[in-house]
Amino acid sequence: MKKIVNAAAIFAAAVILFGCASTPQSADVPLWVANYRSVYPSSEFIAQRGEGATRESAITDSTARIARYIKSEVDSHLASTTNTIVSGAGADAVASKEVKTENRTEINSTVTLMNVENPVSYFDKSNKIWYAMAVIDREEAWRRFVPQVEDAKSAFYAAFNRAQAEDEPLLANVYLRAAWEAGKVFLEKLEYARIISDTKELIYKADRENIAKIPSLLLQNNLDSTLALAVTGDNGNIITEAVTSTFSALGLTVSKSAPRYTLEVVVSDNETGSADTVYKIYPDVSISIVGRKGTAVYSLIIKWNEKNGKAAGTLDRAERLAFPALAERIRTELASDFSAKMGIK
């Protein structure tokens, strides 16, 4: 009897529909009980033998063993790392930098394997134990599973090809970021496909290589995206230093002039009071990257999130009290937001 089995779900709690016919009892123990691989060779089948006090529990055990095997194989391969070398280009060349990126940071999708069968069961009277087999025919599994692989491949290339066609490097990174997320799901599907048939899965070798390129492409685009800094409203370069050091850590160069992008930073005090009383400010900072054609390719606003502002007898003093706290938030929130939108988390 064929069933659809969710490998991830069965690993947590096997829920199986029963009703498979058992093998007629005989005095001789079936060969598959003694050596199931001789009956279900690994070249043709993914198979596991289970046992239990009842026929149903033996079936459950055999199917759960397949699920655990598949899950452990997928997890072990997706935890591997990709190493890439990235260098600056032209006059702005920088020292080579090695990037190590986990192929999977977080996988949310689940994979459904088809045609799991429980073809036989057997009761060992002397030991009062039931045995059962769970079997996946590799050829049939591949036929049913490959459409899922192709769907994941299409989703990946929809973003990856758009990134390749984009001539604005930071806009390209937006699409590369989407391709990276789609690529992680694609890799997961490929790992299940590899378990079903490692020889057939080899047709996707070039696709795996394209996914592995993404970290270096992202960093290379950053290296090619020098930012011309334009700051308004800073005090003592407190905000300027936080913004420039953060982008530098992300792989972008900030300079006084740049051929491609302008980094616009506007600090607003949102002050209350006047010179003859007390200044109280609730500052925020607007950060945006604008391309040569005036198109904003990235923006972020960080607002003063405390209930009270910073008060002082002079505006300069209020700013020097408030801006360091805002600078610390810039270092954390700008790095996180930019990476989430245009880089690798």
Q: What would you say this structure looks like, in words?
A:
- With 345 residues, this protein is an alpha+beta fold.
- Helix content is 44%, strand content 23%.
- The chain has nine helices and 14 strands.
- The chain has helices at 7-12, 31-34, 36-39, 55-78, 138-165, 169-196, 205-223, 238-249, 315-342, and strands at residues 2-6, 45-52, 81-86, 97-102, 112-117, 121-124, 129-137, 227-232, 254-255, 261-268, 279-281, 284-290, 296-303, 310-312.
- The strands form four sheets. Strands 1, 2, 5, 6 and 7 form a five-stranded antiparallel beta sheet that branches. A five-stranded mixed beta sheet has the order 9-8-10-12-13, with helices on one face.
Query: What structural class do helix, strand and pairing data support?
Result: alpha+beta
What order do the SSEs take from the amino end to the carboxyl end, as H and E? EHHHEHEEEEEHHHEHEEEEEEH
Task: Give the end-to-end Cα distance, rounded to a whole number of Å.
Answer: 44 Å
**What proportion of the residues form beta strands (DSSP E)?**
15-25%
